[in-house]
Structures are given as structure tokens and as C-alpha cells.
């Protein structure tokens, strides 16, 4: 064969070998690696999409909205995208990496100053092109440094990243000592820096717009807030409970907080399908909120300019909205709503929600016939769990600090998850399966918004009045609550002041400062226990053997105990003793009942846990179930007071809500369970008292208003109130002498109103001057509240005008 033929045969053999190699490779791809490539195809084809849930509304007893979700817009940031694609983020991140070349890292920031974004850009683009491409850094960091430079150059020079990278490499090949800022052939370094400055100015303008929006919102509401105030739907309320206040932060400050340098591997925690806990996603890959409640005009402008701010994304969101001029006490009690954080408690919450909501439907969410292999199906199920956990952490909200928190199970729905098929451009084409979103349920509270506004207004007026005349105005607190006697529904509750020394405080209607002794308003409960003990043969002192009231009584401990008046023989009569609040009568009653009897009497009215040996039937509640322990103090008993003094209410402390519930039992004969949910079936408890015993106590309550300690408060008689005054003398902390009083009044209206409720109430003014008694302060205050209700036709019809029954 000729040389030409030989060469052709050799060339053909080479091509044949190459063709055979290609065929073998394709056969391997199609047969041996079929599953791997099919799984890769499936990963590109299917994806999960989350569907956020709507939180249920809080309503008052007549269906008026107290808090509800409304659609709005939210600006979020995925910091990984921001530092990779946004020139300002790339400058900060790249400049920080570049300082590692010198062996000492410098941390640049977004908020300006000597190490702000423009200085970062100058330092980053001041690197030599040769130094950049051959930087003495780990491979990943060198790649990130180059990517940061290309991002800044492309944006500042108004060109594509590919073109910027090609021109940078060409410059490095011909002029390796040239600064990166001068690497573009058609632009000077100053023009590059001017281009970056314009980009930075647009980011600063967005920051100013968000700050101005927040300032306008706070000026309109008169609210302060915490550092994340505009990120918390009800931050001013949550901060009021938590006692926090700080200058709100803007976009640039938050970018500094979101920032995670590549050496810091801070991750979330995730739970695998087998129950094991492992490191989850990097925090910088999570969408974190920058600003919420964006008006449509600003949202539209951001949407139009979306390509100018990569890493920031605008999404539809939900806002927890409340009526304007919500009464201050109710605002405190409702609490706040905010996105989950990264605390251990939040992680437990996420784990519980995944187990309760996602796990039961996970098999159906990933059908068998969709999977390329059992292993891929398992991987897809794990991806579904990771995506669901992410939406819970970044999009779902829960209540904080008040009713929103305690009713979270009812109000919070469950987000949905969709498995969708997408095309090559990641556009959704087909819904394959879904985990249905569950909206939260609306919850109606027992609160009457009209009555709540009136009560908050009257409480504020009373605080102002007593602070003007008190010798120690800083000790004055005023609180009152109104209930429905039969159901225990809380109709309104208010306390003031809202702040102490400029700091938010817990509602005074649910807690007290220092000594919260009840005084004589406990006497009706103890008298009923005396009558019951007599009937059942329990330890007691016979009324026939009681000593007359001579203003002073010597107890078994040889101490002298005082009464306010000399009641003589009439002080032995139970009705008269209750009417005139005769201490000598109740000193002797307490000695007869002893400590177990006193405890038993208070327990029957829900003011103490049962005494030793007494079965617990559940009537004692530390607080209504709708209120967290941090807001409501539980009733308590102090053993430091002598037994006779406990018989007149010293050493016994409770908030007005608990006392009102006890007086509801005097009105109806059964102790209700106090609560704040309308229509809720709550248990009530038998007092184990006869009609005659209740009639005797009620007669004393009626005469207290018409002839006894409250007779000078004519406003109470006009409404036919049955009630009892209470005055507890409080020893001044700094002295051994008497200083101020707790002034109480508790009672009820004898009739059922047209609205179907029987009104029961308890009011207290803590810290009134010595010599001011329960009738003078709390009794007068109750009369003023009833008079204000009478002038309101709607409230008068609901609660004051007698009706035909329930």
C-alpha cells in the first residue's frame, strides 16, 4: 500500500477507536449510570414551593376585630445572594477577604465611616490584577475574592460579568501590576469608582426611604420600639411587656447583622427524618426580613427596580393589624406576633409543627411513581422536610408575650407545601401534589371593646386624681375588672399607670407591687365558712360565745387587736358585723376556724389551693388560661401575719380579677372559672352553702352599701349594688410606722341586664394616704364607672337595664 493509503487506514483506526470509546461511554451513561442521571434530571424538574398560612383573627365579644392579618408587602434579604450579586455586598465581602492576604483581617461595614462600602471598593479594586489572580488564599476564598471583584467591576462599568472577567484576565496577562480599577480598557479608575458610588447612593436612598417610612409610622402611632421594631408586627406592644426600648435599625445596619463571613460556619439546626439532629442550612442562605408593612407605591418602585438590588427580594406578606386607639391595657394583654427566631424554644416549636403537620402527609406528598429510585424518593422526602422547616423559621409567625401567645395553637394555622414540575427556566408548569395550607381559626374574646375603652379612660382619670393628692404619688396604682357573674367571662379589665420610672410595667389589674393585702373584702368568704363549719360540725367558735365589740380585743396570744369602732353587742350579729366590717367579730371567727378553716374558706372561692387533706377539685386557678404567668400574679397567703389579722384579710393577696371571680360566686351561688374566650365551656363549682347562709351574707353586702361602711357613696345605692369595702393598712418600707392603704371595693348588681349578663366588679386603689378607706377611693371609683356606663345608651342596655333573664 502506498504511504497515503497507510496514513488513511491509521487515521480511520483512530476515529474507530474514538467512536468506540464514545459508544462505550454513552452505553455506560444510558445503562450503568442511568439512575444517577435520572435523579439529576428529576432534581432539575421538580421542586417544593411553600404556601404561608393566615393567622386567625382576635375578636371582641360582639365580633369586632382586635387583631387580624392583612395583606401587605415585605422586603427580605438572602445575604448569600446579596454578597455574591450586589456590588455593595461584593465590595464589603471582597475587601474583607483581601485583607487576609496581609495576614490581619479588617472588617468593613455597610454603615459608612472610615471602613464603609466606598472605602471597601477602593481597597478591593486597588489590588494588582496579577496579585488577584494568584492570591495566596485557600482555593474557595480565592474564587470568592475573584467573584467579588468581577461583580463590582461589571456593575460599576455597566457591562456583563463575563465581559468584565475576560477584560480582567487580558489585563493580568499584559499588565499584572495594574490596579484592578484600571483593568477595563474603556474606563478610567475614577469612572469605575464614580459608577460604584452611584450604586451605593441608590442603596442609601432605599435605606432612607425605609427609615422615613418607619419614622412616619411611629409618629402616627406615638410608639417607641425595639431594635427590630419594624420587623415585629406588634413590636411596641411586645416591647412594652418585655421592657425593651432602643433606636430602630435601618437596612444597612441589618445587612451588617445578617453578614456571615465565610470562615464563620454558623448554621441552623435541623432534624432528619430518622429523628437525628444535624447542622442545617447556612444562615446567609435564609431569606431574612428587612422591612415589613411596605406601602404599595414603595413596593411597586422596588419591583420595577428589582434588578438594581440583587439579593433583596420583595414578596407578598401578612401584617398583624390592630384598630387605631386600642385601649392601653388591652394592647398590653394581646401581646405581639413575630417571626420565629433561632432560640432553642423556637427549634422545639418547629420540630413539633413538623411532626404534627408534615409527617402524617409526607408519604402522600411524594408519590411512589414520581421517584427515580427509592433512594431519591427518600432524598425528596428529606428535602420536603428541610423546605418545610425553612418556611416555618422564615415565614411563619407566632404570638409573643400575651393572649396571642397563649392562644397560639388556635390562631396559628399550618403552612402548605406544593410539589411542582418546572421547565428549564425554573418556571412552574404542573402541580403534582400538595400539603394543604391550614388557616388559623378566629377566636372571639369575652372583652367588650366599648366597655374596655371606658374602663381604661376612667382608670387613667383615677390615677391622675390620686397622684395629685397623695403624699407618695409614686405608690398609686388603680385597677378594676368587670365580669359576667354566671359565666366568668371577663368583660373589661384595666390598670394604670402603664409605666413606672419611664419603663413599661405589667398591668396593675393582674399584679401588684409590694404588699397587695386584700383587707376586709375577704370577710364574706370567711363568714360563709363559719356558717358551713357550724352546720357540718367542723372546728369553729360558736357565735353565741363571741365577745361584744369594745374596739379592742385580746387574743389568745395576749396581743391586743383593734377595731375601727365600738359596736358593742351588735358586733356579735353576723349581718351587722359584715355591714360595719367589725374586726372584733372576725378576729374571733378566725381563731375558731383556725388556719385550716381560713384556708378552706378562701379555697372554696378560688383564692387559694386546697388545704392539706382537702381534695383538689380544680377550682383554684393561678390565672385565666388565656394569660401567661408573666402577666398575672397568682393569689397567695402569707403565714407571717397573726391568725386574727388573716381573719380580716391581712397576709392574703390577690389581683382584682381573682377577687371579682369570688364575688361572682356570692352573686350566683356557684364559683365560675374566669376566662377571656367568649362561649367557652368552663366548669363552675358548688360552694356547699345553703340558701339561708348565702342570704345572710347577701344581706350584709346590701346593708354595707345602704347603711354601712359604703353608705356615703350614694352612687352605689343608685344602682342597688351589693358589695363590700376593704382597707388594708400597709407599713411603709422605709419606716416602722403606718404609711399608706390599699383601698378595695368588690360587689355586683342584683339583676340580670337586657344583654343577658349580671355585672360583678372589683376595684382597688393601691397606696392611698393613711385615713383614706375602701369606700372613699375604690367605692367612689366603682360608682363613677357605673355612672359613666349609664350615660352610654349602648352600655347601659347591655349591662345596667334589667332584662327578662338569660
Tell me about this structure:
Helix content is 43%, strand content 18%. It has 806 residues and is of the alpha+beta class. The chain folds into four domains: 3-32; 45-64 and 323-445, Penicillin-binding protein 2a (Domain 2) (Alpha-Beta Complex); 75-317, no CATH class; 449-799, 3-Layer(aba) Sandwich (Beta-lactamase). Strands 2, 3, 6, 7 and 12 form a five-stranded mixed beta sheet that branches. Strands 14-13-25-24-23 form a five-stranded antiparallel beta sheet, sandwiched between helices. β17 (552-554) and β18 form a beta hairpin. α14 crosses α16. The longest helix has 33 residues, at 189-221. The N and C termini lie far apart (119 Å).
Summed up, what is this model?
The protein has 806 residues and is α+β, with helices and mostly antiparallel strands.
Q: Report on the biggest sheet.
A: 5 strands, mixed
- Give the oligomeric state: single chain
Derived structural class: alpha+beta
CATH hierarchy: architecture of the largest domain: 3-Layer(aba) Sandwich
Shape: elongated
Low-confidence segments: 224-248, 733-737
Distance, first to last CA: 119 Å
List keywords for this structure.
5-stranded mixed beta sheet, 28 helices, 4 domains, elongated, alpha+beta, 25 strands, 5-stranded antiparallel beta sheet, single chain, Penicillin-binding protein 2a (Domain 2), 806 residues
Helix-strand layout with pairing:
Blueprint lengths: L2 H30 L1 H12 E6 L6 E2 L5 E14 H7 L1 H13 L17 H9 L3 H5 L5 H18 L4 H14 L14 H33 L13 H8 L8 H8 L8 E5 L5 E6 L4 E8 L1 H9 L7 E10 L6 H7 L1 E4 L4 H15 L3 H4 L8 H21 L2 E4 L2 H4 L1 H4 L4 E7 L5 E8 L7 E2 L4 H21 L7 E8 L5 E7 L2 E2 L2 E2 L18 H14 L15 E3 L5 E3 L11 H7 L2 H21 L32 E2 L5 H4 L5 E2 L2 H13 L1 E3 L11 E3 L4 H16 L7 H5 L3 E10 L6 E11 L10 E11 L4 H17 L2 H7 L7
Parallel strand pairs: 2-12
Antiparallel strand pairs: 1-10, 2-3, 3-6, 3-7, 4-5, 8-9, 10-11, 13-14, 13-25, 15-16, 17-18, 19-20, 21-22, 23-24, 24-25
Helix pairs in contact: 3-4, 4-5, 4-7, 5-9, 7-8, 7-9, 14-16, 19-27, 20-22, 20-25, 21-25
Amino acid at each position: 500500500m502506498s504511504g497515503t493509503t497507510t496514513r488513511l487506514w491509521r487515521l480511520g483506526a483512530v476515529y474507530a477507536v474514538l467512536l468506540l470509546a464514545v459508544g462505550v461511554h454513552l452505553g455506560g451513561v444510558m445503562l450503568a449510570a442511568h439512575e444517577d442521571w435520572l435523579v439529576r434530571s428529576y432534581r432539575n424538574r421538580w421542586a417544593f414551593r411553600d404556601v404561608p398560612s393566615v393567622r386567625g383573627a382576635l375578636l371582641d365579644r360582639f365580633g369586632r376585630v382586635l387583631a387580624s392579618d392583612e395583606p401587605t408587602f415585605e422586603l427580605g434579604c438572602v445575604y448569600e445572594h446579596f454578597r455574591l450579586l450586589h456590588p455593595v455586598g461584593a465590595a464589603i465581602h471582597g475587601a474583607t477577604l483581601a485583607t487576609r492576604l496581609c495576614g490581619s483581617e479588617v472588617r468593613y461595614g455597610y454603615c459608612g465611616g472610615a471602613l464603609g462600602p466606598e472605602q471597601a471598593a477602593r481597597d478591593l479594586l486597588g489590588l494588582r490584577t496579577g496579585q488577584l489572580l494568584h492570591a495566596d488564599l485557600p482555593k474557595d476564598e480565592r474564587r470568592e475574592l475573584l467573584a467579588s471583584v468581577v461583580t463590582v467591576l461589571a456593575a460599576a462599568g455597566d457591562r456583563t460579568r463575563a465581559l468584565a472577567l475576560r477584560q480582567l484576565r487580558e489585563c493580568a496577562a499584559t499588565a499584572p501590576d495594574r490596579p484592578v480599577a484600571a483593568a477595563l480598557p474603556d474606563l478610567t479608575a475614577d469612572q469605575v469608582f464614580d459608577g460604584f458610588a452611584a450604586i451605593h447612593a441608590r442603596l442609601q436612598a432605599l435605606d432612607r426611604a425605609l427609615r422615613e417610612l418607619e419614622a412616619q409610622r411611629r409618629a402616627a402611632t406615638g410608639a417607641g420600639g425595639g431594635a427590630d421594631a419594624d420587623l415585629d408586627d406588634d413590636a411596641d406592644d411586645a416591647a412594652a411587656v418585655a421592657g425593651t426600648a432602643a433606636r430602630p435599625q435601618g437596612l444597612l445596619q441589618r445587612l451588617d447583622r445578617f453578614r456571615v463571613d465565610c470562615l464563620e460556619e454558623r448554621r441552623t439546626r435541623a432534624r432528619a427524618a430518622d429523628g437525628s439532629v444535624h447542622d442545617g442550612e447556612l444562615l446567609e442562605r435564609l431569606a431574612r426580613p428587612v422591612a415589613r408593612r411596605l406601602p404599595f407605591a414603595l413596593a411597586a418602585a422596588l419591583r420595577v427596580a428589582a434588578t438594581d438590588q440583587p439579593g433583596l427580594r420583595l414578596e407578598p406578606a401578612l401584617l398583624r393589624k390592630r384598630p387605631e386607639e386600642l385601649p392601653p391595657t388591652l394592647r398590653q394583654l394581646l401581646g405581639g406576633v413575630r417571626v420565629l427566631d433561632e432560640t432553642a424554644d423556637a427549634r422545639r416549636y418547629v420540630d413539633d409543627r413538623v411532626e404534627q403537620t408534615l409527617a402524617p402527609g409526607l408519604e402522600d406528598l411524594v408519590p411512589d411513581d414520581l421517584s427515580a429510585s427509592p433512594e431519591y424518593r427518600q432524598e425528596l422526602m428529606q428535602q420536603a422536610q428541610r423546605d418545610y422547616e425553612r418556611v416555618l423559621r422564615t415565614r411563619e409567625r407566632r404570638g409573643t408575650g400575651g393572649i396571642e401567645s397563649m392562644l397560639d395553637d388556635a390562631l396559628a394555622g399550618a403552612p402548605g407545601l406544593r410539589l411542582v414540575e418546572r421547565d428549564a427556566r425554573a418556571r412552574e408548569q404542573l402541580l403534582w401534589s400538595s400539603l394543604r395550607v391550614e388557616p388559623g381559626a378566629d377566636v372571639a374574646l369575652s372583652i367588650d371593646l366599648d366597655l374596655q375603652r371606658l374602663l381604661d379612660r376612667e382608670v387613667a382619670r383615677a390615677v391622675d386624681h390620686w397622684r395629685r393628692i397623695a403624699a407618695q404619688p409614686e405608690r398609686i396604682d388603680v385597677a378594676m375588672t368587670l365580669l359576667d357573674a354566671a359565666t366568668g367571662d371577663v368583660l373589661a379589665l384595666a390598670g394604670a399607670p402603664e409605666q413606672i420610672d419611664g419603663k413599661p410595667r405589667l398591668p396593675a389589674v393582674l399584679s401588684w407591687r409590694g404588699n397587695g393585702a386584700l383587707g376586709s373584702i375577704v370577710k364574706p368568704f370567711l363568714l360563709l365558712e363559719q356558717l358551713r363549719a357550724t352546720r357540718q360540725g367542723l372546728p369553729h367558735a360558736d357565735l353565741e360565745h363571741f365577745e361584744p365589740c369594745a374596739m379592742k380585743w385580746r387574743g389568745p396570744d395576749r396581743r391586743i387587736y383593734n377595731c375601727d369602732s365600738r359596736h358593742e353587742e351588735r358586733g356579735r350579729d353576723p349581718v351587722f358585723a359584715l355591714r360595719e366590717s367589725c374586726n372584733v367579730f372576725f378576729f374571733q371567727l378566725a381563731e375558731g376556724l383556725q388556719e385550716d378553716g381560713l384556708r378552706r374558706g378562701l379555697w372554696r372561692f378560688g383564692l387559694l389551693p386546697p388545704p392539706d387533706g382537702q381534695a383538689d377539685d380544680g377550682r383554684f386557678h393561678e390565672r385565666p388560661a388565656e394569660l401567661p404567668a408573666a402577666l398575672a400574679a397568682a393569689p397567695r397567703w402569707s403565714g407571717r401575719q397573726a391568725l386574727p389579722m388573716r381573719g380580716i384579710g391581712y397576709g392574703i393577696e390577690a389581683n382584682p380579677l381573682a377577687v371579682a371571680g369570688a364575688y361572682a360566686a356570692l352573686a350566683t351561688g356557684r364559683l365560675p372559672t374566669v376566662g377571656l374566650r367568649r362561649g367557652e365551656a368552663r366548669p363552675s363549682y358548688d360552694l356547699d352553702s345553703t340558701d339561708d347562709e348565702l342570704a345572710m351574707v347577701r344581706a350584709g353586702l346590701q346593708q354595707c352599701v345602704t347603711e354601712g361602711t359604703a353608705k356615703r357613696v350614694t352612687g352605689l345605692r343608685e344602682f342597688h349594688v351589693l358589695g363590700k369595702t376593704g382597707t388594708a393598712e400597709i407599713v411603709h418600707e422605709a419606716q416602722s410606722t403606718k404609711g399608706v392603704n390599699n383601698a378595695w371595693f368588690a360587689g355586683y348588681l342584683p339583676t340580670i341586664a337586657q344583654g343577658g349578663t349580671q355585672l360583678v366588679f372589683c376595684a382597688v386603689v393601691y397606696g392611698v394616704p393613711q385615713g383614706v378607706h375602701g369606700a372613699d377611693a375604690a367605692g367612689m371609683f366603682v360608682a363613677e364607672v357605673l355612672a359613666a356606663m349609664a350615660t352610654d345608651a349602648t352600655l347601659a342596655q347591655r349591662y345596667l337595664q334589667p332584662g327578662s333573664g338569660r
